[in-house]
Structure formats: C-alpha cells, structure tokens
Write a structure and sequence with these properties.
It is a single chain. This protein is of the alpha/beta class. It folds into two domains: 8-172, Rossmann fold, CATH 3.40.50; 187-295, 2-Layer Sandwich (GMP Synthetase, Chain A, domain 3), CATH 3.30.300.20. 37% of the residues lie in helices and 22% in strands. It is built from eleven helices and nine strands. The strands form two sheets. The protein has a six-stranded mixed β-sheet with strand order 2-3-1-4-5-6, with helices on both faces. Helix 8 packs antiparallel against helix 10. The longest helix is centred in the middle third of the chain and has 20 residues, at 187-206. The protein starts with 7 loop residues before the first strand and ends in a 7-residue tail after the last helix. The structure holds guanosine-5'-triphosphate. Guanosine-5'-triphosphate is lined by residues 16, 18-24, 68, 125-126, 128-129, 155-157. GTP binds at residues 16-23, 63-67, 125-128. Residues 63-66 are annotated as: G3. Belongs to the TRAFAC class TrmE-Era-EngA-EngB-Septin-like GTPase superfamily. Era GTPase family. It is found in: Cytoplasm; Cell membrane. Residues 8-175 form the Era-type G domain.
C-alpha cells in the first residue's frame, strides 16, 4: 500500500428485484460460489455474507433481507425493513436489468432509496444479452431517478466490467481498516457456525452448571489438500478457573464429550471429516468487554 493512497473499507448492501442477478454478481465479485448455509444456522447469524479484499480496499457485502428470500417478500421488506437493513451500510448497490421503462417494482425501490443518505450505485446487469443501444437507453431512463454516485453496466455471468465495478465500490467507501483477513471470503461464516456448534454442545452437555458464561473462538480451520479432512483448533473461553475445571471434567471427560458432539455436527456442515482440538481458557469478565465480544461475532445489540 502506498502512503498517499489510503485503504478503504466498509459495508455494502445489495438491493434489486428477484432474478436480476444479485447472487451471480456477488459470486462474480468475490470470485467463487458461496456455499448455502443451513436455515438453522442462518437464523442465528449476523448479516455479514461475503468479503472481497484487494490492495486498495475491503468490501463487506451485507445480506440484506429480500436478497435470498422468497420473491413475494420483497414488497414487505421494502416497506418494513429497508431503513434498518441499510443503516449498517456505507454504500448501497441497486441492481437492475436493461429495460425501456421503470417497472412498478423498480419504482418502489427508487422511492425507498430516495430516503437513504448514502452513496447509491446503479448497476445494470445482464448487458451481454442486450445491445449497447438498449443499455444507453436504460441509463437515460434511470439517470435522473436518484442522485446515483455512479452507473455501471455489467454482465455478472460473463464477468464484464467486474474490475470497474469493484473500483467504483471501493472509491465510494470511507477510509477504514481491514476488518477481515485478506484471504477471508466466506469461511468466516463457517467459522462462526462452527464456533456456535461447539458452544451449543457445551451448553447442552454442561447443563446448568455454567449457564451462559462461555464463548468459543476458532483459532485455526484448514482443509487438508486432499479435501477430506478439516483440522480445527478452537478455544472455549470461560470466566472463572472453577468453570474451566468443570468444562474439562474428570480426566478430560467432559471436554471430550463436547468435542465429540461438536465434531459430528461440524462434519455435517463442512462435509469433510473433522479433526477437532479443543482448548479451554479463562478470560475474566469477557462479557463486559465490547471489543472482545465483537471478536466473537456478537454485535453490540446482544
Ligand atoms: N445473461 C445473463 N444472465 C444472468 C446474468 N447474471 C445473472 N443471470 C441469470 O439470471 C438468473 C437469476 O440470477 P440470480 O443471481 O439468481 O438472481 P438474484 O437477483 O440473486 O435472484 P433472487 O435470489 O431470486 O432475488 C440466473 O439464471 C442467472 O444465471 C448476466 O450477467 N447475464
């Protein structure tokens, strides 16, 4: 990174009617297909979906409601949740397809976005199946609908203008830190879920002895080159030395039970064998420490 060029980072919300290519575009930007997580896991996860990083910046895509949800939910979402969904975003990306008029659905999105005081980028997707003339016409129709910071025609399927779009998004982000390791794409979510699975087992097996005073941190998670085994090292964090003793159990028996239960669940999620090593650490009052909480994937609201 050069001194005069500051690193930019932030959160991007993607909005658009069903089928305009939102998922395809996101896959195209991050350069790989995103595994679909189980519905059970999703209900407990925060909204962060995927991360793209290059030398200039880091884009964290937020999973806005309506993005992966059922088609007819979009309207409800637009009415009820648009402001809260976008409150975390630094930039909004509105995806449309080329067309010669603004449909009712698009109109509704435009009205809601009119109240969003953030940069809005209009992305015209699927230009591979349209003539330049049709694309220009679309730009013409849409350019005054909102005060867009940029309008970018792309083809998510053919990866046309991918780099240009990435540059435009990063240009619109504020200066900021790298929130995630540069090689993080989606496994952050898998890591979070694995941590959650271990926590779930611990809570189940420990019964009421240590109610909620534990957190789980995944230290390393690596798939072996043959793709058949994932090595995971994780730490269970508790508040007191006495808790540590209970979690480990007599001769390590309790920790072994927690580990076995979690391993079985993780194998289902990751679809590989899992070699799990569990550690236990005491960190006094971790629940009061906001930074530590954020580290464990808990938002301020919890
Ligand atoms: N020709 C063409 N087809 C595309 C492009 N991008 C996406 N598609 C197709 O459009 C269809 C919908 O794409 P998705 O990425 O699932 O769209 P979505 O907006 O995420 O859809 P919902 O999840 O229903 O909201 C798929 O059949 C894609 O292959 C593109 O750039 N060109």
């Amino acid at each position: 990174m050069q001194e005069d060029k500051k690193f930019r980072s932030g959160f991007v919300a993607i909005i658009g009617r069903p089928n305009v290519g939102k998922s395809t575009l996101m896959n195209c930007i991050i350069g790989q297909k995103i595994a679909i997580m189980s519905s059970k896991a999703q209900t407990t996860r925060k909204r962060i979906e995927t991360v793209y990083t290059n030398d200039e910046g880091q884009i964290v895509f937020l999973d806005t409601p309506g993005m992966n949800r059922s088609r007819n939910k979009l309207g409800d979402f637009m009415v009820n949740e648009v402001s809260s969904a976008f409150s975390d975003a630094d930039v909004v990306m509105w995806i449309i397809e080329p067309g010669d008029r603004i449909s009712a659905g698009e109109q509704e999105i435009a009205e809601k976005l009119a109240g969003v005081k953030k940069p809005v980028i209009l992305v015209i997707n699927k230009v591979d199946v349209n003539t330049d003339e049709e694309v220009f016409k679309t730009i013409d129709i849409y350019k005054d609908v909102l005060d867009f910071t940029d309008i970018v025609p792309v083809s998510a399927l053919r990866e046309k203008n991918r780099e240009e779009l990435i540059n435009v998004i990063i240009k619109n982000l504020p200066e900021g830190p790298m929130y995630y390791d540069e090689d993080t794409v989606t496994e952050e979510t898998e890591r979070d879920i694995c941590a959650e699975l271990i926590r779930e087992q611990a809570l189940q097996k420990l019964d009421k002895e240590i109610p909620h005073g534990i957190a789980v941190e995944i230290d390393t998670m690596k798939v072996r080159p043959d793709g058949r085994i994932t090595d995971v090292e994780a730490t269970i964090i508790c508040e007191r030395d006495s808790h540590k003793g209970i979690i480990i159990g007599k001769g390590g028996a309790m920790l072994k039970r927690i580990g076995t239960g979690a391993r079985i669940e993780m194998e289902k999620l990751l679809m590989t064998k899992v070699n799990l090593k569990l550690f236990v650490k005491v960190r006094r009052d971790w629940r009061d420490n906001q930074n530590m909480l954020r580290n464990f994937g808990y938002s301020d609201k919890r």
